[in-house]
Amino acid sequence: MANLLLISTILLFFYALTCSATVYTVGDNSGWDISTDLDSWSRGKTFSVGDTLLFQYSQYHSVSELTKENYKGCNMTNALQSSSNGNTSFALSSPGDRYFACGNRLHCLGGMKLHVNVVGNAVASPIGAPQAAQPGGFNLPPGSSRTNNPSSSSVLNRIRVDSLVMAFFGVLVILFGVI
Ligand SMILES: [Cu+2]
């Protein structure tokens, strides 16, 4: 009986840990392509620590992670990391901005680039601040920018998650220390 309880508790715990991790296929069915409207694709999505970006693309493309400055100018020298195997995953393992572009500079200049802001909460938030908000976007009025920096709230969320985990282990210790 205790074993069953232990197993189900552990399963529940791992489910809680993993259920919020999302694998985002960039561009969905259109994939990572020059014809994909990547701004529309990323708009309204909240990318969280633990999520993964999956880039699927043809032999004519590649994917490079760039610094913000190089991203702006589609400067492909000194890419942080690159791949051209057609099926590339990037783990969003820490909060902050990430910048990706096709390694073909002309494609990058043509819009084959993606900026995501990774927020540091493991708890899925339905009210994620949309990044890459365009004037005319449906979420924010023109002119409002990302002044609601997610870093402070994400720290709070992180603390909340940590204390939840601590509380969980506390309950486990009490539960199985008593039995
Ligand atoms: Cu390309």
Automatic annotation (TrEMBL):
<feature type="signal peptide">
    <location>
        <begin position="1"/>
        <end position="20"/>
    </location>
</feature>
<keyword id="KW-0325">Glycoprotein</keyword>
<feature type="domain" description="Phytocyanin">
    <location>
        <begin position="22"/>
        <end position="120"/>
    </location>
</feature>
<protein>
    <recommendedName>
        <fullName>Phytocyanin domain-containing protein</fullName>
    </recommendedName>
</protein>
<dbReference type="GO" id="GO:0009055">
    <property type="term" value="F:electron transfer activity"/>
</dbReference>
<dbReference type="Pfam" id="PF02298">
    <property type="entry name" value="Cu_bind_like"/>
</dbReference>
<keyword id="KW-0812">Transmembrane</keyword>
<keyword id="KW-0479">Metal-binding</keyword>
<keyword id="KW-0472">Membrane</keyword>
<dbReference type="GO" id="GO:0005886">
    <property type="term" value="C:plasma membrane"/>
</dbReference>
<dbReference type="InterPro" id="IPR039391">
    <property type="entry name" value="Phytocyanin-like"/>
</dbReference>
<keyword id="KW-1133">Transmembrane helix</keyword>
<keyword id="KW-0732">Signal</keyword>
<feature type="transmembrane region" description="Helical">
    <location>
        <begin position="159"/>
        <end position="178"/>
    </location>
</feature>
<dbReference type="InterPro" id="IPR003245">
    <property type="entry name" value="Phytocyanin_dom"/>
</dbReference>
<dbReference type="GO" id="GO:0046872">
    <property type="term" value="F:metal ion binding"/>
</dbReference>
<dbReference type="InterPro" id="IPR008972">
    <property type="entry name" value="Cupredoxin"/>
</dbReference>
